Protein 1
Amino acid sequence: MTQRLFPFGWTVVLFTLTSIFAQAETKLPSILGSHMVLQRDAACPIWGWDDAGTAVTVSFAGQTHTAKAGKDGRWQVKLAAMKASAKGRALTVKGSSTVKLEDVLVGEVWLCSGQSNMEWTVSRSTNAKEEIANAKHPLIRHIKIPHRPSAKQESDVPSTGWQPSTPKVTGNFTAVGYFFARHLQGELNVPIGLIGSNWGGTRIEPWIPPTGFKSVPALKSIADKLDEFPQKNGNRINHQSALALYNGMIHPLLPYKIKGALWYQGESNRADGLKYQAKMRALINGWRSVWSDPELPFLFVQLAPFRYGGDAKLLPAIWQAQLNTLKIPNTGMAVVTDITTLGNIHPPNKQDVGKRLALWALANTYGKKGIVYSGPLFKSLTIQGGRAIVDFTHAAGIKARDDKPLTHFELLTAEGQWFPAGAYVHEGKIIVSSKAVRNPIGVRLGWDQLAEPNLVNGAGLPASPFTAKVGKKL
């Protein structure tokens, strides 16, 4: 019996060992895949996993780099900076096994994050059928990251991979991102890659890295308790708690090289008011830190007017917080008060939203000259002869877009009361006055959740709502 079992036992052992060795393979994270776009003019990390100690060689576009998998199995190389290329080429990774990625381009890569207005698809946007039918843009590529809260920082996340824009798939792309990319691609004539990591209804806190919370003193109450996050609802991770979505939907992307980030979020943080500014700073600081790029461009969309109900002044306070965020270098803000649907929190005109973000990128990120990229933004306030004189930046050709009297201006009395006021353009500035306010100490524009001010500049871009008081910094 023993003699008969002994050979069989060894057969089992040998089969097991053979299986183990057969399973050894070179693995890549899902963010690295066929049809991807690598960032031009920058060193691009390529990484993955293999058996510890295995030499892994990466070849692409005439470059060859080798690294050895560490004790944890992870390896990484960096491709040297490359010029943009619309020619699809193969990227090969050879380790315990060989992985070949096809049709890899080199161009500009942007992260598209936030809540539902960023996740909103082309298929649900204005002129959807026509847009989808014309979505033949093989140099625009998109990858969607699934909703995935996590209690720990994930190293990888499954996805359906990178997809070139075609009528068959573009309907599912982030609309803001796609229209941004379409305008950018037309101007730069290089491939554009979009990473869609977004989730409708989410707050800003889950997206912020630990280093972001720690960088803003006003958020010390969260920073001091990061070991308590993310929180759980029973056995499930609370996707609205701090760190949950950074862990599961942003960290797995690192260190994929990106040019910048697009952000459309804030509806779920509407009650924060001006406190939202601190959270925006934490998000920007945090993402710049984890991507090791202190100047990473961060472009965002100011929320649209909407009939939320409740306190009609909560939304304007968020607008002011977003306006204040522009004080952070290398940021930009698309104002959308003129392309709204007051009864729909998701205005379907995402074409203009994407284009306005692209204008900021073209002018400030890519250095294109002669582009009007912003509507009027509050600059200064002076009081003279009982009138408020308001100066704006980006004010060339400032006017009412409908040739009617300027709307939604108010003046503040010394007693703290606001009154509606008339306004007109004089020598490129706005003069605001009211018979009810003889000695104003403050002025504001669009301070109501339903406000759609008609102040624009010569390019037709709308002014941001704002509030200002004499002698008080915003």
Protein 2
Amino acid sequence: ALILCLACAAANTNAAEQPGALYAGIGLGLSQLNPQENGSGWHTIDKTDSGFGVYLGYPINERWFAELTYADLGAAQVAPRNNSLSAAAEISYQVPSLTAGYYFWQPSEEIYAFVRGGIAGIKNKSSGAIDIYEQNTSVQITLGLGLEWRFAPQLFARLELTSYDVDAQIAMLSVGCWFDD
């Protein structure tokens, strides 16, 4: 993140105000994961984990943007309902997504509120000797809401809450920068 910020600060144009400039970012967050049990004999014992995300975006105009994101939401801890069957295990979540966003409110010159929506491909993997998770579908609708603070001509920070499905959400703080055309 530091290298990304330094590279952006070295640029000499104000790309933040120019639609058409690519931008990228990286962030850390806390995730809430609740895999559906569906009569599997397993139950979730720890639904929270830390996660990270990286994204590449393109501002279509002053209000609209498109983003390609990869988020690793961490893993939910699960255990068998019958303790004699097996040890506890994890179900991990990796999520690539493609979204469109809209800046709907600007309470100050540097702060922008936005919403986003799109499609996500959730990839789950369970730890342990037995595959304990049966995924209903790998394609989901993703929705997000956030604030963006443009604290320097090329740099910004975001605080965002994103939901990838009823069982996977993340609150993330990220930093990013615009690149010259």
Protein 3
Amino acid sequence: VNIEIDEGIRVAQQLISPDVLDLIPISDVVSLGEVAVPADFVGKSLKDLDLRNRMKVAIVAIRRFSVGLDEGGNTVSKERVVFPNADEVLEELDVLIIVGMNESIDLFKDL
């Protein structure tokens, strides 16, 4: 285990692809990633996007953020995790948790 090298790789990936919030290797060829939803995907369902067939990545969860007001009228950010079905429609502030082959994730993050 070499924490400095692993963290250095992580920081470099974030600098190269700011829309990829995190990338965790599962094996040498498969990773789990956190990716900001591409603008072109907003308002579309996962079924319509067909990412599993088109891009060979699976959306395993969505971190969904919303902004509201508390009792004092202060702005509060709320987060919830959604385990989506095919009919889930993506929203502007969503963060997609994806899994796939590293090449597929590289193609996805270039959208």
